[in-house]
Amino acid sequence: MEALLAAAADPAYGATVVAVGADREAAGLARAEQAGIPTFLTPFSGYADRAEWNRALADRIAEFAPDLVVSAGFMRILGREVLSRHPVVNIHPALLPAFPGAHAVRDALAYGVRVTGATAHFVDEGVDTGPVIDQVVVRVEEGDDVASLHERIKAVERRMLVDVVGRLARHGWTLHDRQVKLGSAPSVNATEENR
Description:
alpha/beta, 34% helix, Phosphoribosylglycinamide formyltransferase, transferase, phosphoribosylglycinamide formyltransferase activity
């Protein structure tokens, strides 16, 4: 989130952060407030079930009328109530479809891969199963543990997320049969699969 705020401070970037939201208290909310960005909190515990929470979250997001939602560090599965109204981009610390889920770096090391990386993808109702937008390879080094490898992946993720969000905002995209085509539309388009 901080990398996106820094990039958006440059008018040439082509994207503006209109709000920062979370499902629980997080340092990113304070950072956004310091930057003068509106924030909101939609705690999961405040709702009877996942569908009700997703509807409330979708309504809160809609108040800011974003063209694109970025799930940076947001660790909850978003449901149809959100995804049918807002295209959502996520970043994942592995080369999807390999190693989905919350323990991707640990799982990649346990499997013994020589390379892993980061994936920017559109979010669908699965766990890290949405259409891939971009990927960057990170080599696994001798002696890597989860912490050291994850730190190198995070550096790649930040750069890739800033690049991908900027390109989507400036040039739009189309999605057909899971193939994301950047720069193929005059403005941001909602993804077919999320409608």
